[in-house]
Amino acid sequence: MLETPKSDRVSRRREATKAEILGAAWDLVGEVGLAGLSLRDLAARVGMRAPSLYQYFDSKHAIYDAMFQQAAQDMLEIRSVEVAPATLRADLLRAAHQFFDLATANAARAQLLFQRTLPGFEPSPAAYAPATELINRLQQAFINGGITHPDALDAWTSLLSGLVNQQLANDPGGDRYKRLVDRFVDMFLADFGPKKKGK
Amino acid sequence: MLETPKSDRVSRRREATKAEILGAAWDLVGEVGLAGLSLRDLAARVGMRAPSLYQYFDSKHAIYDAMFQQAAQDMLEIRSVEVAPATLRADLLRAAHQFFDLATANAARAQLLFQRTLPGFEPSPAAYAPATELINRLQQAFINGGITHPDALDAWTSLLSGLVNQQLANDPGGDRYKRLVDRFVDMFLADFGPKKKGK
DNA sequence: GTCTATAGTTTGATAGAC
DNA sequence: GTCTATCAAACTATAGAC
Q1: Of all protein residues, which has its CA closest to the C1' atom of C10?
Q2: A-B interface: how many C-beta pairs under 8 angstroms?
């Protein structure tokens, strides 16, 4: 509230335009692929010329960076990683399906988040922060649920990442690998779940 | 043997040059990324100028296509997917490790084979043939080993693909996910392995 | 705040000399 | 079979008018 009303309105308008640009960028990479994004086409899609984009983003990489942060934030919205021992299996099933559905809903987003395929692009620490937060939450959730094996987190992410990747690569838009999610969660629980009896 | 000796020697020389170009291409994409390959740089690496490459490949995509075929053929060299019921676990462990090691040894190769990330590139049927052959062999091996569940093949490839992807993305050059291969094979066997007792 | 104009590169690919 | 020369096009990014 230290800003004057006018500059506040201006900055709000500016944020709205940035959001509009990012929205158009997501549409565009959905059509031409993540690496196929060009500033000319992006500008045209929001009714601008390419140079005008530089009023909102310092570079093309800055746009990718903002997209990365949005994508990581989207994944973080899965706040239902709350896990209780009494409902462990149901909680993990819900979390797994939410992650799988979100990750496979947008191939470009999955490529940006989970693969290092853009030449020269590295997400900034700020953009990466939500991803770290997601891992932390998942780790805490596992502890709460009684899953304590040090490799549990890596195993969980590998299981889901494998299904997501195969779904996107071999059956985009289908459900050939989605049908395996439940089974993989049970495989995970059988190996990493809390043991009924002591060792 | 229908060719004259001279044309045979010429064509042999030609094949050798093509192989040399492909070798340089693998080196190059290992440094600049799969999408970063440029014909100028590639030509320079074999002591040519860019236009000369067109004597050996019709286009840049043709080079990618030949690389894809080589990569798929490399994977097919894992002929130790022979599986017998008596040695099922050991056979699968060996096959899993061979696949994992080969797939993670070259990030660009993994990207070319397992991800659809090159804008506009689709492997030709000829280049794809070894990949299909590999799947067929794996399927036959599973049947021989008593693994008959219709989802077993998808589950197996998902498990391995997840580990490979995470290894390449989060710990390139390390062994953080390689250490999970044995465990994943056992998880797979516990769920999809032949049952001791009839149903 | 958006534009025109353009710089400066890089790219894949072709024509034609040698 | 390799070259020089070059095309035509794309790209990111900047300068400066309005």
Answers
A1: B38
A2: 106
The Cα of B115 is separated from the nearest Cα of chain A by a number of Å equal to: 6
Residues A165, B114: C-beta atoms closer than 8 Å: yes
**Protein A37 CA to nucleic acid C8 C1', in Å?**
20
Contact B165 A166 (CB under 8 A): no
For residue B199, give the DSSP letter. Answer: -
Closest to B39 in 3D by CA, of B51, B29, B31, B30: B51
Residue indicated by tokens 């559905």: A101
Mutate to test the interface with A, among B121, B161, B182 (most CBs of A within 10 A): B161
CB of A119 nearer than 7 A to strand C:
no
Q: What digits encode the pLDDT tens for the residues B106-150?
A: 999 999 999 988 988 999 999 999 999 999 999 999 999 999 999
Reported as half-sphere exposure (CB side, CA atoms, 13 A), residue B182 has a value of: 5
Q: Which pLDDT score is estimated for A2?
A: 46
Whole-structure pTM value = 0.93
| Residue B88, CA atoms < 13 Å, CB-side half-sphere | 18
Q: Residue B192: in which H helix or E strand, if any?
A: helix B181-192
Stretches where chain B sits below pLDDT 70 are 1-6, 79-81, 196-199
- Contact residues on chain A for B168, CB-CB shorter than 8 A: 116
Give, as ranges, the nucleotides of chain D with any atom within 7 Å of a protein CB.
Answer: 1-5, 10-16
Window 66-125 of A: residues touching B by CB (8 A cutoff) are 111, 114-117, 119
